[in-house]
Design goal:
The protein is α+β, with helices and mostly antiparallel strands. The protein has helices spanning about 55-60, 140-175, 180-200, and strands at about 1-10, 15-25, 30, 35-40, 45-50, 65-70, 80-85, 90-95, 105-110, 120, 130-135. Strands 7-6-9-11 form a 4-stranded antiparallel β-sheet, with no helix packed on it. It has a 3-stranded antiparallel β-sheet with strand order 4-5-8, with no helix packed on it. It is found in: Membrane.
């Protein structure tokens, strides 16, 4: 520890002012702000990482960080703050917390963890910002979508066509008992026409 005093001369008289009778530097730390903050956003999450400078290794292991992020066009006064649980210089933001198509800005600051008794510090200044935007979920191709739709329609259309032909053949056999040989070509023609129409719809 140290004893800090201020000496001055007032009207020719020397005076000593005791500023800190006991000053311990490890209890009054202010770190430099984090550097090189970067981000990478995907459709599911945004990863943010950074580095610290001029921090001894024994302090780097007991640091805590606070992340602040907002929509790029908004003020920092309405930003969201998160105190990170880990001393690692990285974090993630889930995509559910971000709006699609909106650019965001984030920054971070650090201090010694409040759980430490040997050291104490105040928050550093905020780092520079990183800008990111959530990636959109890939859309299903329209061609693939149409193909799947046609596959779902093919079964009921085929079943309906066969049911129609069966019912039509049954009615025709009752009405045209005198010419059974002529009925079959007409039914065959009707069946072929229905199949052609069904294939045309599927295409």
């Amino acid at each position: 520890g140290y004893r800090v005093s201020l000496q001055g001369n007032v009207f020719g008289l020397n005076h000593t002012y005791m500023t800190f009778p006991e000053y311990n530097p490890r209890k009054h730390i202010k770190l430099d702000p984090p550097l090189n903050i970067q981000s990478n956003a995907t459709a599911s999450k945004c990863q943010i990482w950074w580095s610290v400078w001029n921090v001894p290794w024994y302090l780097a292991e007991i640091l805590q960080y606070e992340l602040q992020y907002k929509e790029y066009s908004m003020s920092w006064e309405v930003a969201l703050n998160k105190t990170l649980p880990s001393s690692l210089p990285q974090t993630e933001i889930e995509a559910t917390e971000l709006r699609s198509g909106i650019a965001y800005a984030a920054r971070v600051r650090c201090k010694v963890s409040e759980n430490e008794n040997s050291y104490h510090s105040q928050w550093s200044e905020w780092s520079q910002t990183t800008v990111f935007q959530r990636a959109d979920v890939p859309k299903v191709s329209e061609k693939i979508l149409n193909t799947k739709t046609m596959q779902f329609l093919f079964i009921p259309l085929s079943f309906g066509t066969l049911l129609y032909l069966f019912w039509n053949c049954k009615l025709s056999s009752r009405r045209q008992k005198a010419s059974p040989a002529l009925t079959f070509p007409r039914q065959l023609h009707s069946f072929s026409h229905s199949i052609v129409c069904t294939m045309g719809i599927l295409r």
